[in-house]
Amino acid sequence: MKRERWREVKIKIAPAIMDADLGHLADAIAELEEAGADLLHVDVMDGHFVPAFVGGTRVVAAVKRNATIPVGVHLMVANPDQAVPWFLDAGADTIFFHPEATDDAAEVVRRIQRAGRMAGLALKPEVPARSIEHVAAELDCIVAMTVNPGFSGQGFIESGCAKIPALRRMCKPGIDIYVDGGINPETAPVAIRYGANVLAVASAVFAADVSPGEAVKRLRRIAENVSRAKD
Predict the structure, then answer these.
(1) Catalytic residue positions, numbered
(2) Number of structural domains, the chain?
(3) N or C: which end of the chain has fewer CB within 10 A?
(4) Are the C-beta atoms of residues 32 and 40 closer than 8 Å to each other?
(5) What is the rounded average pLDDT of the residues 60-77?
(6) Ramachandran angles phi, psi of 60, nearest 5°
């Protein structure tokens, strides 16, 4: 990857709030923000596109009410065409969806952007970069999944990162490319070296051997050290 593209991206930490203590959501968000989290990541699963059932518009709205940093929503749903307006109304700043769940990914992207929000696609580990070449230039961000979607705490699939250099070439300069799944202090450097700059993290923050805030700070130190070394 050309060095000049790295100058345009900032390392960001995006805790996946599904693993937080939802009974103390406001406190959890305050701790993450105090620790320097850049974004909050909310997973939504419908029990159809993936086996699990997680999240919903009320969860997103509650996160948004308590957050001062942007809130992104990852729709793992079979009907993004129908669901996107619900999550726009709930206050999502960014919406990711899976391209294979719709017949017209470009139109869903444009619908999100017309509402003044950020639009992105989420790619399962086996989905190649070339499959979204027709819409890549329109995207505001991308998630390269490093687990198969559906459950937190899975092992990291490094091959899910292999498409990131191609995505950087085909997308607009400086685009945020997330990695999501199995990201922890050991795997984060791998993802950063492939070209990811946003770490969506769940168990590595909320089930770490330190507090969630300290876990966020630790991941940032590790990621930024790797990024500087790569430059």
Answers:
(1) 43, 180
(2) 1
(3) C
(4) yes
(5) 98
(6) -60, -45
